[in-house]
Every structure is written in structure tokens, then in C-alpha cells.
Amino acid sequence: MKLEKAIWWILVSLFAVGSILFFFHLWLLSAWAIAHPEYAAFIIGLLGFWLFANRLIFGYAGLTTFASSLLKGQEPDKKDLLLRARQKITKLEEWTVASLLALWQAVLEPYKYAYYFAFFLVFVCTMLFELGFWGDEIASWVAKGLMFGAAIPTLLVFGLDLLASHYVSEALSRESL
Amino acid sequence: MRNPALVFVVCVVMALFLGWATGSFFTETSVSKAIASIPGSPIVLEAKYDQENHAIVYSVFNPGGMPETIIQQAFVFKPGRETKEKGYVVSNIPVHITLPPGETSEVIMKLKTGTEKLHLGDVVLATFTYIHPLSTDLYTVVHSFEMGATEKKEKKASSQPGSSPAQKSEKSNKGGHK
To answer: How many angstroms separate the CA atoms of B157 and B170, rounded?
Structure first.
């Protein structure tokens, strides 16, 4: 939870500081961005998409950790789990750990699809720029840089999602026995 | 995906491809930026005589990454055996033909009006003066066209010493780089 918040605030402040420097033409940042638009787009894509992916990345990583520790026979702290899932429920003692994990996974589901949809839009726009529907070569470079920057957190989300759903389904099937 | 190891392998392969694509993308952009800043020297690939318009059509290839502009044409006509026309020189015809980078463009040079059509053995020595955006210097390419020659001779001034001003001779050297 602490690392998630720390990374989120670092990224938000980087974004804010970068935007202020850029818009007020301070500290050569805008000159550099104009000279190398594809690098700037890559960084914007990486930072911006990581901001949106942050909850998903840490959510699926946490799910994997809790589910695998449950599978190893340890009993995770339910309150900690609930706190990290950012959910409130009543009668906590009646919930099993695996059902809490399933709740957490269900909460993350709409975020995941919204995130994938945003990445899909960026990908399609990059394709259209690349095929020459709009803009010139520089525009297609910028779109491609943005797409590659966005692809890095997207790959993390994809992998962690697969891993988490595997461990959660294992934990659920073990508890139902 | 049952096996976490399989998930790991799939993600590693995808990460490899992503890294490969990202790396080659940034290499591509930096290389094409570097190439776009190099002016090439135009090459005359082919020359054809256009009988109807009494003109010679040159296919000029610009191998560099910068557009170049032909600002002047000049030619020397050397008569062959079959023609009655005397030799003549037409110089400093102002033109403005832009050669886009990496492409072959056509440059038409009209011969002196009222003169005879070209016969076998006639030689037209054309000089193109061009400029590029990096400097204020003038550069020249000299091409010799022989009517009826089976092999189109593509020559630059450097390959025929003494017949013309040296290739890329600096006629003016005022500003240098901008």
C-alpha cells in the first residue's frame, strides 16, 4: 500500500512538474521536447499510462501475493487484505480469504477493461497515423512513441492479471474442497 | 493459462518483442534524422532526347536526405558528323527545379529554338548548378549526352578532367553555414 501510494505520488508530481516546465518554457524542457518529439511522447505515454495502470499493477501483484501465501498454508490478515482491496464489508469473520480475494479481483475488473480500451484507442490511432490517414511523418513518430510508452505498463498489467487469476482460482478451488 | 511458468514465458517473450520494437523504433528515428540532415550530390541516371519538343529529358536522382534546387542550366552543343548545325553554347538559363530527397525527378532542358534536331553523334554537355539548404555555395553536375550512343554515359565532372569546371567547385563562399 505504501509503495503503491509512493509511486503514484511520484508519478503525479513528475507529471505536474513536467507540465509546468513545459507550458511555461522553463529549463529547456520544451526545447528538448520539440527537438525530440518521439522521446517526449514515449515518456508521456509511459508516465500517463502508468498512472492509470498503477492500481491495476499493484492490485494484481497484491492478489498474487495473498493468494500464493494462502496456497502455501499461511493465513493472511483479512483486514489488511480488505484495506488493500479498498473495500468495506460487514461480518468480516464470515468471509473466507479466498472469497475476499475473489471480491478484490471483481472490483479490479472494470478498471482493467477501461484501461485496455484506452490502450486500444492509442493503438488504433497509431495505426491510422502509421498508415498515413492523418498527419505527417513526425505525427506518426509521436503516435508510435506514445504507443510504445503505453505498452510497457500494459504488458505488466496483462502478465500480472494472468498470474493473479491463476492463483485466485487455485485458492478458490482449494477452499471449496 | 494453468501454469505460472507458462505465463512468465509468454510475458518474457512479449517483453522481448516490445523491447525490440521500441529499440528499433528509436534507432530508426535517429537514423532517419541523421540521414535527413545530409545533402547528397545529384546523379543523372538517364538522359533521353525528346524529338517533338526538341529537348533533353534527364532523370536526376537525389541520394541525400535534403531537398536540392537546381537554379541554373547551361549547355554546350558539339556537332557530330551528320549535322550541319554549328557548335554553340547556351549558358545561365535560370530555372527552379526542386529535387525531393531520395527520389528520382525529371529535369527537362530545352535546346536552342530554331536549331536542327539532334543527329547521331551530336554531343550535348549539360551543366546543372544546384544549391542545398546547408550552405550558400553553388555546386555543379556536368553530364555529357551523346545522341545515339548505345550506352547512356553518365558522367560527372570529376570523371572527365579538363572538360568542365570541377565538380562542386565553390564559386561563391560568402556565408558558409547558416
So the answer is: 14
* Domain chopping of chain A, boundaries: 2-176
Per-residue model confidence as pLDDT tens digits over B21-75: 999 999 999 998 888 888 888 898 888 888 888 888 889 998 888 888 988 888 8
Cα separations in angstroms, B21 against A163, B17, B144, B164 = 25, 6, 47, 50
**Cβ of B26 and A158 within 8 Å?**
no
B163, B78 contact by CB (below 8 A): no
ipTM, two decimals, is: 0.80
What is the phi/psi pair of residue B74, to 5°? -150, 150
- Measured in angstroms, the CA of B136 and the nearest CA of chain A are apart by 25
d(CA B112, CA B114): 6
Chain A residues near residue B18 by CB distance under 8 angstroms: 148, 151-152, 155
Does B101 lie in the same domain as B24? no
Give the pLDDT confidence of B88-103 residue by residue, as tens digits: 788 778 888 888 888 8
Q: Do A166 and B25 touch (CB under 8 A)?
A: no
The verdict on B141 and B85 lying in the same domain is yes
pLDDT, tens digit, for every residue of B100-155? 888 888 888 888 777 777 888 888 888 889 998 888 888 999 988 887 765 444 44
Cβ distance B4 to A148 less than 8 Å, yes or no, reads no
Q: Which domain holds residue B113?
A: 43-159
Tens of pLDDT, residues A83-102: 888 888 888 788 888 888 88
Mutate to test the interface with B, among A57, A146, A154, A163 (most CBs of B within 10 A): A163
Separation between Cα atoms, residue B95 and residue B60, nearest integer Å:
15
Does A162 sit within 8 Å of B11, measured CB to CB?
yes
Query: What mean pLDDT, rounded, does chain B reach?
Result: 78
Higher pLDDT, A73 or B23: B23
Structural domain count, chain B: 2
Q: Do B18 and A151 touch (CB under 8 A)?
A: yes
